[in-house]
Amino acid sequence: MSKKQQFTLEYPVRCSPSILFEFLSTPAGLQEWFADKVDERDNVFSFSWNGSIDKAEVTESEEDKFIRFHWLHAPTEEYFEFRIEKSEVTNQTILVIKDFAEKSEVKDQSQLWGYQVKDLFHRLGN
User: Fold this and answer.
1) Across all residues in the chain, what is the average pLDDT?
2) Which is a Pfam family this sequence falls into (predicted)?
């Protein structure tokens, strides 16, 4: 099996970092746009899509800055991360997503993130 590579996506967002962080780090927030159902217990999030469940552990987070998840089935070095940055030029909030995918799947994965972020923006009123 070939090693997955990291890729990064950036999306400008029109909302405060604290509101955005709620949507990225809480079961209720993530359930609004990321998965059909989200539960959390002891820092492990259960994400449900069409009846199938996948679990990810929060490995690092800093309030209103970033949260990093590790899929329990994935190699240790792989994760997905939501980071909130401020553009120094425009002072706009930027959502930075880091994820891993096979080289041949990066485009599809990026597109999938794009659809999900579109849902997030809809919920945020962007």
Assistant:
1) 95
2) START_2
